[in-house]
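job 3f2a | input accepted
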Amino acid sequence: MHPKYRPDIDGLRAVAVASVVAYHAFPKALPGGFVGVDIFFVISGFLITTIILQSQAAGDFSYRDFYARRVRRIFPALMLVLAATLAFGWYVLLNREFVELGKQAAGGAAFIANFVFWGEAGYFDTAAETKPLLHLWSLGIEEQFYIFWPPLLALAWRRRWPMLRVLWALAVVSFLINVLTIHPFRTAAFYSPLSRFWELMAGGILACMRLRDPGATKPAWRSHVQSVLGVGLIVLGLVMIRADKAFPGWWALLPVLGAASCIAAGPQGVLNRYLLSNPLMVGIGLISYPLYLWHWPLLVYPRILNGGWEPSAGVRTGAVVAAVLLAWLTYRFLERFTRTRAGAPLLRGLVGIGCAIVLAGVMVVAGLPARNGGEMLQKVTDATVDDGYYDGFTPEKVGPHLVYRVGRGERKVLLIGDSHMQQYGPRAKALERLAPERMATAYFYTWGACAPIPGMFAEGNPACGEQRDGMLQLARAPQIDTVVFGGCWNCYFSGDFPLAYEYREGRAVYPVNNGGPGIAPALSMLGHTMAELVKQNKKVYLLLDNPSGMDFQPQRMIAGSRLGTMTVVLDSPTAPLPAAQAELNARLRQIALDSGAQVVEPMASLCKDGQCLRVTADGKPVYKDGEHLRPVYTRAHADYVDRIFLGEAAPAAAGGK
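job 3f2a | predicted structure (657 res):
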């Protein structure tokens, strides 16, 4: 049994999908637009629970019919978009990129995309803006909800449990999982169904409350208040929430309660009636599902074709227009056709197509090549996914601190910093094998994009402060003999890093990025921190940064068009060292000397006469991206760090060059 059609709910769908599309196309224009997904969750929970409970009350609920309707609703547009995305990916992507897409497509068709992206997440993960099927994570959450929710409601109905209390209890548990995991396990809180189900349950609770007394009427003023309050909360979420906030967490209450309030207001609420039930809003709502599916691949592929850079506003606008057109065509000629056909052959066909998409994705992961293959192209794409910096390491606790240990020597060396320190893990592991009798016990204590400087903060990296405090606490511990400071100094002090950094001194806050006034006090604090450790009779090293920039990216070796033929062209094995990085290096060198620390200089090995290495003699890229040296390179060639692990008399031969 289906609930009575409400045009205002389609209007609410329009708000949700328009918010998401606007955010993805123009994130600065609507910074909180991604909360549209949370609005979708509430709507889905409300409608699905209404359908199930009404059918249970009428005595005609059938799992077969319920899931058949889900297949007819979800599969047609989804399988079309998956097939089109895979086909275009085969044409324009490189092999490694195509493998990632195959995994995403298989996960999307199997409705486990949230787990796929959860498993991929990490500091060295591919940028979200270049994953054509990333948006399917939310569909995975919904379909997983549909697996457990109908049996639970049916069980509660048969056992005559207090339905509303059961739903409230489950929603509260899920919400608590959300708020308790959002800081320590942010990725899990975002992708896990356990921390997201409360949003769908909010709609389910509302459905249950309405169905308990279907004949009840309420004053018109109450509907108007709920309508205005609901829209107001949604607008507040759209303008206040940012991607760098701890989301979902407590912030998700704004869109969830806003959507629930709009639904509770009913079709006669003032904004429901005159805004959400507007024919234009209803029309957008009717195509909201295919529009959501189409918009993200159409925005991602232009970025990929543009070398990973954001396309122009005109291109993004064109992608949105194309998404709207394809969504309407999908709704008009595919969705309306399949929803009115209830026969078994159609269902078998749709499920068969879904299985075929899963199989195709698995075949791609297993090695089915993209159109742009070739040995040299493969070398380049292999470099971009070479990120096993801690492979073979033993994670262990030193007191309360989680570190990655290598070696078992008497000397205790602590290496603190970010991923630019982490990239020397493979070298330490190689030295443990090549010279075990001289290898120190080395602890790597790193956190991505986190400078080992007290007072340096970035809002988009909320755990950095706590992690850095832990690093410095362990550095001061008496069992540590040697402390090595390292980081992407170029990112923080001489480049345009994506995160906005600031240096805090008391109540004063100084921006650091792009030559900001926070640079001088931050560098002064770095020197002071190293000097403090030197006074404790610890040996202290400052590991300077490697050259970085767009010229060092492996993709810069690729010539031609993704829409045509792509080849590897190596016009020079080196790239110029940016002048700002050379100046920063000199400044850091002097800070280290003034503090009594010793300097380790990667540029002395990587650069000569202002030109810095970007490929090895056999044509393999030295870098994983524009910043990080590859594990395969540091493992074999980064002998400039050997004295840290083996002692000052370490010969170059220990590196196995």
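job 3f2a | The radius of gyration is 28 Å.
job 3f2a | closed
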